[in-house]
Predict the 3D structure of the following.
Amino acid sequence: MSALVVSDLRKSFGGLHVTKGVNLTIEPGERRLIIGPNGAGKTTLFNLITGELVPDSGRVMLNGQDITRLPSRQRPHLGMARTYQIITLFARNTIVHNVTLALLGLSPLRWNPLIDIKRQSHLTEQARAALEQVGLGHIADRPLAQTSYGERRRVEIAMALAQKPKVLLLDEPFAGLSIDERQDVHRLLMAIPRDVTMVMIEHNMDVALEFAERITLLHFGAVIVEGTRGEVVADPRTREVYLGH
Amino acid sequence: MSARNLALLVAFVALAALPYWMPGVYYINVGSQILFYAIFALGLNVLVGYAGLVSLGHAALFGVSAYAVGYMLQLGFGHMASIIVALIIGVIATAIFALLSLRSTGIGFIMITLALGQILWGLAYRWISLTGGDNGINVTSRPAPFGYPLSSPVTFYYTTLVVFLLAIAAMAVFVRSPFGAALMGTRDQPRRMNALGYHVLAIRFWACLLSGLLTSVSAILFVYYTQFISPQTLSLTSSAEVLLMVISGGPGTILGPVVGAGLVVVVKTVVSGFIERWNFLLGAIFVAIVILMPEGIVPGSVRLWRLMTRSRKNGKAGPAP
């Protein structure tokens, strides 16, 4: 059974067709890279997969289950997690509280108005473990406002990993990072175990190509090339619309 | 004992002993007013401070519960039945408000709550057979729970104080709870909360109900205090006043709305006895708060206190060699 299947997905905003019958099949444990020039519809595709946008037609299957019409808030409960191109965190709180919120999102405890969240040691321990995984365990209690951009990127990934997803969607995780930070995040992503299927949008080809096993090239909302890393890089259409000559 | 706990202890002792050190009955009544308006402000603060939803229709919800008590008593029901029905009706009215207004946030939420508040205010004026119109409804007696009559200012004050302390304790538990954390998450990053698996709309809805419950509790105390309810209680001015309490004291804090309620009630009832244009003074105070402490009196004072203690410590440490 494929981890994620997208069939003939279409989306228009008025007269603008941003997703034109996209098909994707991603196998369990696969590392898939989605590339394309600006405006190709990559983030829109992520938003359609995660349910933040409702498709006009087509289907999205997660581990064999049709989730096309499922509200986006229910998808994390089925094992789908994502990060955002523009960092979207809780700036007033500590790093560990950010990750605790991610854990709480999947727990029935989130409805409890009577217990003290800080006394839920199992949540805090899991949050700290996720932060250790991304190398931020030593600054877990630091307010998010006092962290660097690169650290925040890693907090985003920790929040996604804390939910123990089966499919992880990463929207430009290297955007805005320095060379060293890029290497750190790259090592971190490479260390994620194979039971997590990963789909990544990225422009930074140096690090992204190392990550990818298969690549999908989107252009004007349609898949124009798909294949292994070598096949896609060698394809003249990739050079024409994306990599350049 | 930390400075914060010491200040809270002093405040508690001062409140508990207020009837003994206040110069007269008038000021004990002012104390009661501050306390029940503080509960009202705490209720609105659940939305404004913790959910990021500014309501301009809360006085209407306040009025619904107050009218419910007055009407039930007028029909001949006892105090206990009237209070329970008022709480239920207040929460149901809040649920209707929430269902209609939560489709929107920001300016849309403000405008819908304003419109709903104005509708109820208009009904209070025009539905004379139910509300008595401009003449309002008189409440002829106060209850006597467990043989403890609330007819005197002192007993009423202590009852209000107990309810106020319960409301503060409830808020303290709420803001530390997972649900409280979830609500604050929906205030800061609703889209992210949705992507993390939270039902943002449902969380906001339950927060509205909590807000409505506190509003109803304060309204019941209010109507027994004044022993009268009229459409003026539901007016936009009343909604704006309680919003002013929350914003001036510090939204998103527990003590902020209490301090804000104290400020507004003291200016409105005490200072107005000395200054005819007390509205002008209240406006000037509000402008000063916005300029000097835009986060509100309580968080602003904490910030200034920390700044002072830090600079004093630095001064003691002396210049670097």
Observations:
- Residues 24-248 of chain B form one domain.
- Chain B has a mean pLDDT of 93.
- Chain B has one domain: 24-248.
- The CA atoms of residues 256 and 290 of chain B lie 14 Å apart.
